[in-house]
Amino acid sequence: MTLNPELQRIQKMLQSLLKTIGSTIQLTYLVLDGHFGNTPAFHMVRQCQLHLISKLRHDTALFFAYTGPKSKRGPTPRLGERVDVCRIPDQYLKETKIECGLETRTYQMQLLHKDFPVPLNVVILLRTNLATKAWANVILFSSDLELYYEKMIDDYSPRFQIELNFRDAKHFWGLEDFMNVTQTAVTNAANLALFMVDISQVLLRKYRQNDPDFSILDLKALYRGYRYVTETIQMLPQKPDDSLVSQLFQKVAALGRIHPANLPVSSL
Among 119, 152, 206, 232, which residue carries the largest CB count within 10 Å? Predict the structure, then answer.
């Protein structure tokens, strides 16, 4: 199958990553969002010797394998009965949860799709409002037929957190503001922005123990104020007493914060 330019670019990056890590980390799965829940992306991932985890449209036509009699003439049909997400046999039910008036039924089975050459490991989550009977469904799939439904759901769920990480990198740490043009400089700037997302999340954990509303903007204001006070004190001919220094840190570090400061200077 000929891959489009988008998939060729992704495959090139993926192959470069696999070559870089070598045997240090054994990767098995590549998780892609619903935009890549199609046959070309399936082939792109399998060509890299990885398994794909992705999402199909909620109304995707999926079929059980044909189990009827063989045709006397012509090939035996490949596709059997089409799957109705509201009437899946109980033998495929893996889990049922009821929370806040919503029932979530999780099914797992091997199904066929007209465009995919092999069976797919499919997980269907059917959520029903017990009061109104309104329902919605999500269809996840993997090329790994042995992957258990809990693992598939867990692997796909961080997709939304990854999007939030990119949002923070753009909004707070300059991912969309840098002016570098060379490959090395662009790589360093992008890596630094994403690295700061990780660092900020680690620091936030400490401050949010006493201040649940503490945000990244508060964090930046705190450390910016800390730096201002430090530089100012170094310029003074005589260092102020510890009490005054503590008050300076407390006041200046609170400037520019979004939420009211209630953290002691000692927490820095």
Answer: 152
Contact call for residues 152 and 123 (beta carbons, < 8 A): yes
List Cα–Cα distances, 84 to 48, 65, 102, 241, in angstroms. 33, 14, 20, 75
Same domain, 143 and 198: no
In whole angstroms, give the CA distance from residue 223 to residue 195: 17
For residues 192 and 105, membership in a common domain is answered with: no
Residues of the chain with pLDDT under 50: 265-268
Q: Among candidates 214, 189, 213, which has minimal Cα distance to 203?
A: 214
The backbone torsions φ and ψ at residue 162, rounded to the nearest 5 degrees and listed phi first, read: -60, -40
Same domain assignment for residues 130 and 196: no
Rounded Cα–Cα distance for residues 222 and 215 (Å): 11
Same domain flag for 207 and 135: no
**Nearest-angstrom CA–CA distance, 211 and 204:** 10
Is 163 part of any domain? no
Q: What is the pLDDT of residue 196?
A: 94
From 104, 125, 157, give the residue that closes a domain.
Answer: 157
